[in-house]
Amino acid sequence: MAAIASSRTVTVTINSVEYEREVEARKLLIHFIRDDLDLTGSHIGCDTGNCGACSVIVDGELLKSCMLLAVQADGTSIETVEGLAADGELTALQQAFSDHHALQCGYCTPGMLMSASALLRETPSPSDEQIRKALQGNICRCTGYWNIFEAVKAAAR
Amino acid sequence: MLLREVEYAKPSSVADALSILGAHSGARALAGGQTLLNVMKARVASPDVLVDLNGIEELRGIELAADGTLTIGAMTTCTEICESAEARARPILAEVCGQIADVQVRNRGTIGGNICSNDPTNHLPPLLSAIGARMCIQGADGEREVEAADFFLGVYLTAVGPGELLTKVVVPSGRHDGFAAVTLGVDGTCIANAAASANGSLRVALGCVDAVPVVVSPSSGDDDAIRTAVRGAGLEPPSDVHASSEYRAHLAEVLAVRAVRRATEGS
């Protein structure tokens, strides 16, 4: 029978760095990333799975890290917003966000960037409809979305 | 949000999962977690043990039989259904799975989780009721197969009992299906929905209007016949901030007509 425990050792690779920590089963992945590993780029907005500010890419799949337990991420490779400009240079998408004024307060931006990165990776030349659909899980309360849409469109090939 | 303290197990087989679920009365199966983890935050559910089904390969995947029957593993995600070549045998599946919530939720949320949570606003309970799906439930005493009418029992309640697991969803072949919904924003939560299947007989399942999907069989695809059938169901939908009971009953009629039109278009 599989082991039953209230905590377990979790090994994850985040932005190419491997971390190993003892984690309580009740801890959500977003708290593990922010509090245990001090990677505070990913934000907690609603904590109910609606806003998408905590979006990260786990083994190539875009997920909301407030709806995943940290122990469930054991053995995975995770990308967070910190990984985008890992070498200190903005990605084309990040530069497009800057150029198109795609953020005001910036709180939703880490999640927006991860959702748009996931889209462009799979669909380098998305249609307008595909861009809108890809950003559906991310809420922005400042921009009205238009500039975000424009930035993603500009970053697309 | 910090969840209440909970124990966690990640079995790699259905048999192992069943033995853990059977041994702990406070154990709950964790599928995609897109509902369960949120209700745990709200303390609406407080399981003692979470049995994570994500390590069980036999619960994943879609098989297409020669006669067009689809067998979908309970842990198959909405995204996998949307991208599956096999699932195109019943096109309505990908069409509806593609309008559930958002990319992130579809990447993680599963067909089994959607129907086992049986929230009255979910998309798949009415859809699977309309298209005549059968659910395979496994327990210590073996496997049984139940029809949608015997599967959806009440709000958040299904035929999957304590110590049991939904393992597969079996969907018969058919191409003439339609789905219509009024939602909170594009692809948002349904205020009311309707799924129609016009493969042989005509069947319409109405969602959000009762604890479980309400299935009606209009005598024909005419608007009047559909509206008469929906009225004949004697709906008394719940009222909430989004719609009054009367308005939901009205939507049920309108959406039933739309769903049937989509099901019969081009046929």
Question: If you had to describe this structure to a student in words, what would you say it looks like?
Answer:
The complex is a heterodimer of chains A (157) and B (267). Chain A is of the alpha+beta class and 157 residues long. Chain A has helices at residues 29-36, 92-99, 109-122, 128-134, 146-155, and strands at residues 7-14, 17-24, 55-58, 61-64, 77-79. Chain A has 2 domains: 7-83, Beta-grasp domain (Ubiquitin-like (UB roll), Roll); 92-155, [2Fe-2S]-binding domain (DNA polymerase, domain 1). Chain A has a 5-stranded mixed beta sheet, sandwiched between helices. The radius of gyration of chain A is 16 Å and the shape is elongated. Chain A starts with 6 loop residues before the first strand and ends with a helix. The model of chain A has no long low-confidence stretch (mean pLDDT 97). Chain B folds into 3 domains: 7-55, Uridine Diphospho-n-acetylenolpyruvylglucosamine Reductase, domain 2 (2-Layer Sandwich); 57-171, Uridine Diphospho-n-acetylenolpyruvylglucosamine Reductase, domain 3 (2-Layer Sandwich), CATH 3.30.465.10; 177-264, Enolase-like, domain 1. Helices cover 31% and strands 24% of the residues of chain B. Chain B has a 5-stranded antiparallel beta sheet with strand order 4-5-10-6-7. The termini of chain B are far apart. Classes of the chains: A alpha+beta (157), B alpha+beta (267). The interface between A and B is large, with 36 and 35 residues.
Report the end-to-end length of chain A measured between terminal Cα atoms. 50 Å
Mean pLDDT of chain A: 97
Mean pLDDT across the residues of chain B is: 97
Order of helices and strands of chain B: EHEHEEEHHHHHEEHEEEEEEEHH
* Count of discrete alpha- or pi-helical segments spanning 4 or more residues of chain B: 10
Structural class computed from helices and strand pairing of chain A: alpha+beta
Percent range of helical residues of chain A: 25-40%
CATH architecture field of the largest domain in chain B: 2-Layer Sandwich
Number of helices of chain A: 5
